[in-house]
Amino acid sequence: MKKLTTALATGVLALSPLVAAADSTDPIVIPIHNWSSQIVMSNVVGQMFEEMGLNVEYVTTDSQAVYESVRLGDVTLELEVWEGAFGASFRAALEKGGLHDAGDHNAVTREDWWYPMWTKDACPGLPSWEALNDCAALFATAETGTKGRYLDGPVDWLKHGKERVEALGMNFEVINAGSAAALWAEIGAAEADKRPVVVFNWTPNFAEAVWPGEFVEFPAWEDGCDKDPAKGPNPNALYDCGNPATGYLKKAAWDGMKDKWPDAYNVLTKISFTNPQIAEMAKFVDVDEMEPEEAAAEWLAQNEAVWKGWLN
After folding, report:
1. Are 30 and 176 in contact (CB under 8 A)?
2. Between the CA of residue 210 and those of 16, 191, 207, 275, 286, what are the distances in Å?
3. Which CATH number is 111-215's, of 3.40.50.1860, 3.60.120.10, 3.40.190.100, 3.90.1150.10?
4. Tens digit of pLDDT for each residue in 102-136?
5. pLDDT band at residue 21 using 50, 70 and 90 as cut-offs
């Protein structure tokens, strides 16, 4: 009987959660936004935490307001802090206190106006923004009249396309897409007849492998271009620069996370995804049409050597 008890105990230990008892049983709250890589990555990390025996809760959260939510502890962390899109909101929350920088991913990001390569055939001066503006008529639609049409990201991404058009005196009208899927649909629809199109895009994501293209080259980013009119070529306007061409991708954490879930926090600081890994996460949803939970499970199954090292 003693041997059997010992064997059972050994089996229980082998199956026990990887997390120490120090971590709270309260759920780690992970925010979900409206682009595929963030949704899949959130599920990847959530499933890693569940592998550790922790409780996880997902909440749909505005991608700008989330930093205030992290600061207040309403959500626990943010896994994709893109410098171009969310740097200002992140810095504002940092100044108030309550959240902190939990480290960078290996990925290098860029977010800006973008076109598929067939567009350059029609407007060979690209990627210069001045050349794009000279070609504005190529992008005109019934919706925009004589002005070119630029399809920006969803309104809540706060890409400031309208402000840039005004600051640089461009002959374009900015139309906001309702979702990331609408951006891909725009490119796909233009591909059939090689219609010139310019849309908001970013890297890393799956699109760069499906549709080779380039970012428009605006005046180079200067720190303060979003706050100080003296920065950039127009001394009377903000947002007259392009976004950072080699932007960061950070993680943010509520200050209380490291005390409430110390083991999970330790794992969070180790997590660091690369451009190809993030692009693959997005591809599972946007190309292979998996559900985010399924895509996360598939990514984890294919990359055990990556993530199990973070848990150890």
Report:
1. no
2. 43, 11, 5, 15, 11
3. 3.40.190.100
4. 999 999 999 999 999 999 999 999 999 999 999 99
5. low
